[in-house]
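Hi R.,

Here are the chain sequences for the assembly we discussed:
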Amino acid sequence: MSNKNIGIKDVAAAAGVSVTTVSHVLNEVSYARISPETRDKVRTVSEQLGYGPNRLAQALRTQRTGMLGLVSEDIATTPHAGRIILGADDAARARGYNLMIINTSGAASEESRDADVEALLERRVDGILYATMYHRQVTLPANLSSVPAVLVDSESLNGAVTSVIPDEEGGARVATRSLLDSGHTRIGFLNNTDDVPATRDRLRGFRAAMHDAGLDGRAAPVEAELSEVEGGYVSALRMLRGPDRPTGLFCYNDRMAMGAYRAAAELGIRIPEDLSVVGFDDQELIAANLHPGLTTVALPHYEMGAWAAEHLIDAIEGRTDLALLASRPTILNCPLVSRASVTAPQA
Amino acid sequence: MSNKNIGIKDVAAAAGVSVTTVSHVLNEVSYARISPETRDKVRTVSEQLGYGPNRLAQALRTQRTGMLGLVSEDIATTPHAGRIILGADDAARARGYNLMIINTSGAASEESRDADVEALLERRVDGILYATMYHRQVTLPANLSSVPAVLVDSESLNGAVTSVIPDEEGGARVATRSLLDSGHTRIGFLNNTDDVPATRDRLRGFRAAMHDAGLDGRAAPVEAELSEVEGGYVSALRMLRGPDRPTGLFCYNDRMAMGAYRAAAELGIRIPEDLSVVGFDDQELIAANLHPGLTTVALPHYEMGAWAAEHLIDAIEGRTDLALLASRPTILNCPLVSRASVTAPQA
DNA sequence: CTGAAAGCGCTAACAA
DNA sequence: TTGTTAGCGCTTTCAG
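And here is the predicted structure of the full complex:
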């Protein structure tokens, strides 16, 4: 257990050596020539006294805090934030870094975002992770550029910044293909109406998968609504009441899929017997708890957080040049999570 | 925009004064006697240069970092973590503090938890918030005591530590009363089987509310299962198939309520016409998205986070003696969130 | 009204 | 193989 009150010079005194020696052995300085006995002595004494270095003093001297700033948009409004934080924390900790978190609202003014970054800068974080809670484009605080930075789940509108985002299109392909592979040919897509990358990319992935299967992607039915339960419900109702009802349904997200479940129930359509459904996001609270369990596509939030921290640290330590990565976003895989909502179409 | 490279002495030089003067005006030191002109000059110059103090150096000198450590158990597994963090961050930021976050697993070894606290201590955080993701009792890392600390959503098993927890019993009363007030008299409770405070307290609250309404709380039907959707489903099935079926159902949490919805649907029991349902937790993803919307009781995670940060800072700044608060946990209100799942029983 | 200088706890260049 | 010392950027005592 570390004792705040004891410093390096107390250890030096107790061990009968100089502070330099203590510093050298505790930091395992490569060029230090110190006898094994002295090393042992120092370590033992340091242990006994419960010495822990004052990281502030270290940082002041070395110009390295070992802290990463994480500014997170709307930390509390989605469960995704937790996974990003966890991924970043795990990766950071593995390299001896810690996270300073600042929450910011997606709707916050430019000044307030600047102030957030400013606070991190005054604390001399070694780098900054800027995370949004869903994949979108952002204009970054100007002062962000004064330190290495990487974006999580977003792309920069102003200037090239290294960023990591999910493979929306690939995820949509995988989702659609899971329906195709089960034998479905009449497949509909319930899309979102928001103008975000995911809306475009998931549609493109859907069509591409259909096309690759020899079907006419352009002709496949698509409905769009707000990407909430209610939107899923009304769009599913439209689609399921139409002629040539699809036997497979790919939904923009799990919330819309939840609405589709209700629509199906009201129309007396059974899932998965009469209708197979695939979602997107893997919001466990929904996907795992619907009945039957919803097959869906997971967003790699943990992985994005970890990737970002990892590469940020690489840049800080001069192992990577972020500029090289900045030309286009790094895209991470969205894996299929199979549960019970997909089966072969009934004859 | 702050410029890392410029320090207090640059400002002093540019303003033609000493660093002392700069420090005094920028920190608004009360006893400093400095002419208004000089003050203006310093402020202007500091602004122009984009000076921002180096908080590390400040901290080293003042022995105050203005950082709070937040060790959070299982940050990513529940959406509740976000609300605690947000509450703590808001409160901290309002007082000029920032949060350092460390995630720890509820299942982590004692050494690893010690190491987590250790990391915070080495960074000289002014105080520590220790948060769990559901209300329970914990044994705290030994080294936690070397700095002011407050527990969020948990009670200490070893020694008195200030803590803040939800009013489980009160929440259960409010939930039950909402059923009572709508005219229900046959009310059942679907409880959890885990041995945690919430299980006991919610049952007590349920019975007390029944008793207060002149009903026999002891006689009211109670079923217990794992507090997940499946558990809610099977326990609801048992209860709804029994004789003298209740017209009102209070569920241990929203997940169990979700299971109860399914059970009711299968039995042809309509909500809320034939059965009113109340949940607990207000997991928005579930409660707001079920159909009809689930009336439930919200856990004060944001408020607990804020309360904890607030009082921790008070203690750090010598405005409060945490020891005085430590004798028993501070209990925060759990308000009812009314949606559409409760109505008067049909004649 | 303002400034000089010591010192917070550490690292690293240099000396011995 | 080990020790002396300057200095990281700031606050604060004490002296003008």
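Chain A has a mean pLDDT of 93. Chain A has three domains: 1-41, 66-166+301-331, 168-299.

Let me know if anything looks off.

Best,
T.
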